[in-house]
Amino acid sequence: MTVTEDRSGAEVGRDRRRKEDSRLITGRTMWTENISLPGMLHLAILRSPMAHARITHIDVGPARELPGVVEAIAGRDIADIQGSLPCAWPVTEEMILPDYPPLAVDEVRHAGEPVAVVAARDRVSAIDALEAIEVDYEPLPAVLDMEAALADGADLVHSGHGTNKCFSWILDSAEAGTGDDVGRAEADAEVVIKRRYLQQRLIPAFMEPRSVVVDPTGEQITMWSATQIPHILRLMLAMATGVAEHKIRVIAPDVGGGFGGKLQVTPEEFIAFAAARRFGRPVKYVESRSESMLSAHHGRDQIQDITLCAKRDGTVTGLSVKLLANMGAYLGIVTPGVPLLGAFMYNAIYKFPAYRFDCTGVFTNTTKTDAYRGAGRPEATFAIERTMDELAAELGMDPLEVRRRNWIGHDEFPFTTVAGLTYDSGNYEAATDKAMELFGYDALRREQDERRQSNDPVQLGIGVSTYTEMCGLAPSRVLGQLRYGAGGWETASVRMLPTGKVEVVTGTSPHGQGHETAWSQIVADELGVPFDDVEVLHGDTRTSHKGLDTYGSRSLAVGGIALVNACQKVVDKAKPIAAHLLECDPADLEFVNGQYQVKGSPGAAKTLGDCALAVFTSHDLPDGVEPNLDADATFDPGNFSYPHGTHLCATEVDTETGRVSIRSYVAVDDVGRVVNPMIVEGQVHGGIAQGIGQALFEEAVYDADGNLLTGTFVDYLLPGSPDLPDFVTARTETPATDHPLGAKGVGEAGTIASTPAVVNAVVDALRPLGVSDVRMPCTPERVWQAIRDARNGAHEGGERS
Amino acid sequence: MTHISMTVDGVRYDDDVEPRTLLVHHLRDRLGKVGTVVGCDTSNCGSCTVLMAGNSVKSCTVLAVQADGSDVTTVEGLAGRDGSLHPVQRSFHETHALQCGYCTPGMIMAAVDLLAENPDPSDDEIREGLEGNLCRCTGYQNIVKAVREAGAAMRTSGQQVPPAKPAERPETAAQEVTT
């Protein structure tokens, strides 16, 4: 039954339309919130209205009396089984890791912290009953400002630990032997640029609010959760609650976005898990958007003090970073590790001979921070790209010329940086040249000059961002050196079905990235089967028992290699069977276009499907051959993935109103070889949009008492369709040398690149007015204020961030 | 409890509802129309957009009792009974106008209404027209393209105002589209 499929061209590299779409565009998607089980109770969570307080009295009794309510519990009621929420990244031995009860027991440390739970027959009754719960709070001082938190005699977030300093962590090139001493570089420098930048607090704001369903009635306790990390979640549930790992099943059904915001093991998941066990009935919890803003982890929130040393010809000689990173009140799954991911990126694409990164993590009475798209690298990239522009301005050079003078040449790869990473490949010249051409760089500079000379009230600014990033998390050995609690491998299995169809199991857990499509393309090429004959299974620990899930632009960069390797094992396993069917020596066979054929004589051939059927029947297999073509592979990367690119942004800034509008945006990204260009472009679009969100629109704000002022989409401004321009995107292609497909990660690149491109453009527009910085987000009010301050002769012109 | 009757995606439902029940919760929790989703609690995000009497509404801002007697079309009722996609659904797929897909039901319904009012919108008109629908994944560029291309396809096929009235349910219309 040899079937010859008409396979026109390789799948990898094609704009395949996504398999996922058909359910998403017709409303047949299986969100966690859609799951309903017999006897299921609906949970509502009472949350602290105070940023810091002692719970002196709590009585859930009155809630139990209300119609529809079945149970109500406070922290003390489940203290024995709820466990403490885990942090998987204790970055130093001395790091303070506070106890983190999912349901607060004695003390609340941020507004929105869960204090009690009601379980009712329907969600509305559960929410109604929250008002009947009696809680007395004794207010404690709220610690909100990071620098004040570190001062002597500061009020404490965790009084038992005696300090608000969570950890300090230093990377020094002289100490590490990767470069010179930064102190000496500063002493010898002809130019020293010192700047302070504020990374405002952001909210990931995935569109699907988090929800969780737990069914404790089976042999395994099953949890459905809107999570990026079903495998890690299962492990953490087991380790933190004492329930045996094999008695827990976690399913991530369709998940509506994450951006790092669902890279978390949440209080709500643990509360639902404990409640279901206690009640012996299925439970469901669905957060409101306001609860999500208040309680799901936030991102960024750092103070960056940058010192850049250079010669007058523009050559950089040293870089020093002093960083304060706001942890919030507790440590989430990777909270302390996020700023460390930036530690290796401040030096970026430049050949700094000396480097020092000195980071302090600080507790405050705010929602915890954790990974948000880019996690550490956007902060680093922003700071260095802003500072390179400041250097250019100081020296009167073109910002691209300063960069050219300092970046790693395409002929210098592999290149070991001052932070100790080895960049495998890149071509910054090619990406920049292409971006300048698409942008019309010289013409825009001319127009800028004209507008400056004519004192046009609307000034033109040009922003540059030449970025790289480290992604494809991550080499396990490196993670071990950084004291991360897990490895960074990924796994894949290929199951050959008797009819020649293929099921692929991946340990990655997509939530919008299109893995079902891209993985099918890869498998189609590797196994020579039609795209539509591949089914990709993921996100259920029963079918996909092993994996490290999706974040850090790792799925293709790491999981893709596991997938290729698993496919190659299948091809190898089927070879003796094909030889047996063809009555030839396996050594004489080659696998071409999905067929085994005798080298040099393509006439007789057997497909993988033929072999799968032969294995299924097993009537006639060679002696000693196992009747099984399935294979799995686990891959641990030897290095990170280093996508790079050049983003150029032109803004028009109305100097009378402070309004910023993006006139054009060009992104040339080099993400190596591309499996599906359409999906890659989509990732770039969305990434740029989120970076622009940070530059111009988004900021999570607390008042002086620690209340979140931006707790809804009314107050927290996500970019809408009229707020964004069309992006011009293009690619250069420098294949990753460590990846069999040559692919690099792409999920975070746009976000990492775009924020500094936009802010550099805003500042560039205003620099003749004496403005040298505008604090993010660059709202009309802030821009207007910066102009006004500069005109009034405020120091350095404008609001320093 | 208030007795209400409405037609949703071509099926008539009679129910007694609490007066405070929102249309979106009635659709999801009582009628099982879970294709329509809830993304916020301040009517900013538009994820819950449906058509009521042919006009797009955010079903979190409409009480179920206000929809009494109405014809409601959700994303589940947009394709033909034979599964043929509405031109807007098809163009969302073709132009990669969705990633996680959570905003997509609302975005598609808003786009259907937009094209009914303005069959040949400019890109700026599309962006303004979809202002009430938030997407966190796509950066909107491919959504704008999808609406533009759906509009072109519908104009080419002579298809006007698809689901404005029950009689013009799109299953027939969608089949006429040539692509």
From TrEMBL, chain A:
Protein name stated in the entry: Xanthine dehydrogenase family protein molybdopterin-binding subunit
Region (Disordered) location: 1-21
Cofactor: Mo-molybdopterin cytosine dinucleotide
Gene3D superfamilies named in the record: Aldehyde oxidase/xanthine dehydrogenase, a/b hammerhead, Aldehyde oxidase/xanthine dehydrogenase, molybdopterin binding domain
Keyword Oxidoreductase: yes
GO molecular function, a single term: oxidoreductase activity
Pfam families cross-referenced by the UniProt entry: Ald_Xan_dh_C (PF01315), MoCoBD_1 (PF02738), MoCoBD_2 (PF20256)
Residue ranges constituting the Aldehyde oxidase/xanthine dehydrogenase a/b hammerhead domain according to the UniProt record: 26-141
TrEMBL record, chain B:
One Gene Ontology molecular-function label: oxidoreductase activity
Domain of life: Bacteria
Keyword Nucleotide-binding found: no
Pfam families xref list: Fer2, Fer2_2
Residue intervals of the [2Fe-2S]-binding domain: 74-148
Keywords: 2Fe-2S, Iron, Iron-sulfur, Metal-binding, Oxidoreductase
Residue ranges, annotated region (Disordered): 154-179
Residue ranges constituting the 2Fe-2S ferredoxin-type domain according to the UniProt record: 7-58
UniProt name for this protein: (2Fe-2S)-binding protein
Source species: Phytoactinopolyspora alkaliphila
